[in-house]
Structure formats: C-alpha cells, structure tokens
Write a structure and sequence with these properties.
By secondary structure, this protein is α/β, with parallel strands linked by helices. Among the domains are: about 30 residues; about 140 residues, Nucleotidyltransferase, domain 5 (2-Layer Sandwich). About 50% of the residues lie in helices and about 20% in strands. Strands 6-5-4-7-8 form a 5-stranded mixed beta sheet, sandwiched between helices. α4 crosses α13 and α6 packs across α12. It starts with a helix and ends with a helix. Zinc ion binds next to loops.
Length: about 325
C-alpha cells in the first residue's frame, strides 16, 4: 500500500488500522489466488509432454503447412511419423519445422511453460530463473529458447502499424559496456554506454464524462544505433501509417518527418513533457527502463531489440485475456 492510500484511508471516518490491514491482506490474497489460479488452470490444461505436443499438432494443423518444395498447402498428417506429407510432391515437413521450435530438441512442455510465464507475468522472467524452475542443467538452451520466443513476439507486432495520432521520441537505455568501450567513451560523457531506442506510441482520443481524454494505443520500440535523421525517417515509415499526425520534440532528427506524414507537430522538450498527446511516450520510456533494470539489469546492445519485443508485446496486449494463445499462434 502506498503512503498516499494510507493517508486517504486514515482520513476517512471510522477507518482503523485493523480495517486497513484487512484490506491489504484481502488484496494480497486475491492477487496470490489470481496468480495461482492461472498457473493451476495452465497445469490442468497442459499436465504432460504429450498434452503439449497434441495441442501443438492441433494448432499446427489449424494454421496449415506450406510445402518447402512446391509451396502447396495440401498435406496429409502421418501420425506414425509425426510429420506432414505434401499431397502434390510427397515432401515431408516435421512438426517443429518452420516454427519457433525449429532445430531445437527441448521438450514441448518447456516451450509451453516458457511462453506461459513470459506472457502471464507482468514483469520479465530471467533465463536463470526459468532454468532453475525447469530443473534444467544448462543455461544456454533456455536462454536461446527465450530469445526465440522474443523474436516471435517481434514478428507478431510487425503485423500492424501505428495510426492516427502518434508520438515519437528517442530513449537512451544503459547497455553493457566492456572495458574497451569504457576507455573509448569520451570523458565527461560517462563510462556507461547508452543505446538509442526510437519509441512510437499511439494516443487515442476517447470521450469520458463529457471530456475528451487521450488514451494509450499500441506502441513500437526500435533499436536505432544511427544518429542520422534518415534512419528515423525509415523507422517511422515502416511503423506508422502515412496519413497519421505525428508529435515530436524540436530535435533536428525529426525535421524530415513532415514530408512523409500528414503533419508533424514539433514542440520544445519542456512543453513536450506536459503535453497530453505525448504523455504516453514518457510513461512508456519510464516503464521500459524499470522493466529492463528490474529483471535483466544491463543487457548487451546486440540483444536489446529482443527485450524491446517482449516489452512491446506485453504492452500491446495488456487487455488480452489469453496472451499465451496469441503468442503460440504467432510462433507456428
Ligand atoms: Zn510439395
């Protein structure tokens, strides 16, 4: 309970310390129950390796298989071989081929548990923690599995673009700095390497109690190592619809955006912070920093995009009731 809630409750008449304590315990029990119920229902649905594999087969059949040889989508399922056979050229496709599980030997259950934990937890889940929970000996395969899942998350978000009213800004994220990098970094700029991430967030106007308020829509986060404005232009063009109105600060990096989009409203940085249209950019950047620092501490720049994918996937599906299904369908 935050001090603010405590003060608020104390100010209310007839509210004793024990009432507050009961309230806190109630909230905690509800949260614990909610978490374990989710975990229990997951374990009830996928109690064994076989149950996970059968579920995977059903989803794979449902989505369809494309023949790598002749591009036909007509296949027989060979249950004894656990393979798909093309009706045209008889080419066989294994169950894992062409999916996120391609070229891995880890059990289906590992993948299902990883996807469940990575989508059901609000914060991230480290590979060390997952290795420990699974009781697996080696760290590397678990780390690689989680990174493949993050790639799938990125592919899922690549299927849509942002539209209407979109804020754009750069965030500077502390990333792993080797001793050599520390020496090369100029004095006065600090010894910690910062990686630039271009953050784009939709603002959706909605009327509430007769007042128009801006709500947060979808977001995209792209690692952008270049200082060139052309790079920002290309990132924006790939991720935002051209008939959108953009909001940015007065940085020279955004100077060309007005040529590609309906309008680019540029405000000076201080104004930007208080501007309602861009408040979601600041909220997203501060949540991203907490997400990375809380679980992953300092990540290497070359893997940063994958962590950005995970953050954006969860953010964009914050209201989904079944993120697991959504991720699985995008991984097959
Ligand atoms: Zn074929």
């Amino acid at each position: 309970m935050t001090p603010l809630i405590y003060i608020f409750m104390r100010l209310r008449k007839n509210t004793t310390k024990s009432d507050i304590l009961c309230h806190v315990v109630g909230v905690c029990l509800y949260k614990i129950k909610e978490f374990y119920m989710n975990l229990l229902s997951f374990m009830k649905e996928f109690p064994t390796e076989q149950s996970c594999k059968e579920h995977f087969i059903t989803y794979r059949k449902g989505k369809g298989v494309v023949c790598q040889k002749c591009a036909s989508t007509e296949h027989y399922w060979l249950s004894c071989k656990e393979q798909f056979q093309c009706k045209q050229c008889r080419f066989r496709t294994t169950l894992r081929s062409g999916t996120v599980l391609h070229a891995t030997k880890l059990p289906y259950m590992y993948w299902y548990i990883a996807m469940h934990l990575m989508t059901s937890t609000k914060k991230g889940f480290s590979a060390h923690e997952l290795k420990r929970q699974l009781g697996h000996k080696r760290y590397e395969p678990i780390w690689a599995m989680m990174h493949k899942i993050r790639e799938s998350m990125g592919l899922a978000d690549a299927k849509f673009i942002l539209k209407d009213s979109v804020g754009i800004d750069d965030a500077y994220i502390s990333t792993y700095t080797s001793m050599q990098d520390r020496v090369e970094l100029k004095r006065g700029k600090g010894s910690q390497k910062k990686s630039k991430v271009t953050v784009m967030v939709e603002s959706i106007p909605l009327e509430k109690n007769g007042k128009e308020e801006m709500y947060m829509g979808k977001a995209k986060l792209v690692l952008n190592p270049s200082e060139e404005s052309e790079n920002i232009d290309s990132i924006a063009l790939q991720n935002i619809a051209s008939d959108s109105i953009l909001f940015s600060d007065k940085s020279s990096s955004y100077v060309n955006l007005k040529n590609y989009f309906e309008e680019n409203i540029q405000t000076i940085s201080e104004e930007l912070k208080s501007k309602i249209d861009l408040k979601w950019i600041n909220v997203t950047i501060s949540n991203l920093k907490r997400f990375l620092l809380g679980i992953y501490h300092v990540v290497k720049e070359r893997y940063l995009q994958e962590y950005l994918n995970e953050f954006a996937f969860k953010l964009n599906r914050r209201n989904y009731t079944n993120k697991f299904d959504n991720l699985l369908l995008n991984s097959i």
